[in-house]
Input
Amino acid sequence: MNPLLKSTTALGLALGLMAGPAMADMEAAISFLDEEIERSALTREEQEAEMQWFVDAAEPFSGMSINVVSETITTHEYEANVLAPAFAAITGINVTHDLIGEGDVVEKLQTQMQSGENIYDAYINDSDLIGTHWRYQQARNLTDWMAGEGADVTNPNLNLDDFIGLQFTTGPDGKLYQLPDQQFANLYWFRHDWFTDEKNMADFEAEYGYPLGVPVNWSAYEDIAAFFTGRDLSHMGVSGEVFGHMDYGKKDPSLGWRFTDAWMSMAGMGDKGEPNGLPVDEWGIRVNENSQPVGSCVARGGATNSPAAVYAIEKYTDWLQNYAPPAAAGMTFSESGPVPAQGQIAQQMFWYTAFTADMVGDGAAAVLNEDGSPKWRMAPSPHGVYWEEGMKVGYQDAGSWTLMESTPVDRAKAAWLYAQFVTSQTVDVEKSHAGLTFIRESTIQHPSFTERAPELGGLIEFYRSPDRVRWSPTGTNIPDYPKLAQLWWQNIGDASSGAKTAQEALDSLCEQQEQVLERLERAGIQGDLGPVMNEEQDPQYWLDQPGAPKPKLENEDEEPETISYEELIKSWQ
Output
């Protein structure tokens, strides 16, 4: 059963939605469990007990209509089309779950922060905003909320210990500011069938002098991209032009996330330290010992315009121009994501596992075997020449429920009930089968995913491995994510289009970031947590210090290295 193909109206009828005015209803809960929940981490008895709690807790809010918002990905489509009408039938709380672009979600949140107007009763926004929420204190601190005002609407079986991403949504003060709803990582994606083809393997080794395999570093990735771009794969039954790389380059908000989502740290721009480089993180922003930002440009000890950052952008633009389909330069994140499933792409270094659902669906026949098993696999992304052991290895998105202080208490309570419903253990296994974005350990370990693992190209092995904690979102160095994030796509877009060199674009970016940081410092609105900017110095002073920013290497082409997928996957098992 594909739940997303189910008609919302049909589900509503099955749950009794159309029967009359909204009211809390255990009969609707039983129908929901019968109709929708085939797989769960809870027993049927436990599921019914959890649903009864929702029925009882929601009674004071029956008849209320609330509005929530998230970005448009498969997981949230399942919530909006299947879980929202079910929740309404069970609790009597009607939910309008809007699906919009991620940039629009951040814009709405920013507007609510600035105006105090209650635009949405709850947001699913990335945990990348943790530094913003912690400093501005405009998001409800959920630790205190669950123990205080929200205690009567907090599920006693929420089981926070079961969530795998709470470290990403907890501030330095130890308080929880957001509740994870979906998580996905950016990993390396490649055509395993092409990489293990005898002719391709022999030809590659003859040309490059080392085995074709999963690239460990960017030098090997580049060789593989060059090898497959324009290669004749007719001996494998592949027709049409093929490419060794996939990416996107349109001047759009999603282009900024492409880089703040750890591309720079994978290149080796920042400092060692997990989950984020310290004192210089993957945005190139430096903080002091009190977690206060002190600079972004090299002249203040930052690394946003450092030699390693320039190297990162130059590799991006070079690969986009030479090894990706020509149309990629004009694509956004969401437009480019499904392209590898069309069957013409050899590898993608920066591939979000959120697109796994597209890789196993009806439109992915070109990358699936006849038995439905994948011709592709996922693996850790390779690292750049400036990268050192102990540095951040990749990005993990944690889209998380956020309640704003500007939302009236009764509406926040009703929205909190919905947030807990769509993340509950009753529904989470089923939701995860639809969207493949895991938030609970009990779901990841569920036997149904052991059974499905061979179809998912390494996704389950990754999420069951101890390695998964090494992939992390943006950390707390970023004091105002909405203001700073919009600077990235505008400036990187200039480098992507060729309007500026990488150095020129990054000089502009770090200067603009520092202007925002200086305004925050002058305003003093973040108190002792806000920026305290370093004085500018000769950049060479900072380049001579240990760690980031790092001086330019004489040779940025390291010895290429690959590893067999079979050997690599053993480390995940």
Notes: Residues 1-23 have pLDDT under 50 and may be disordered.
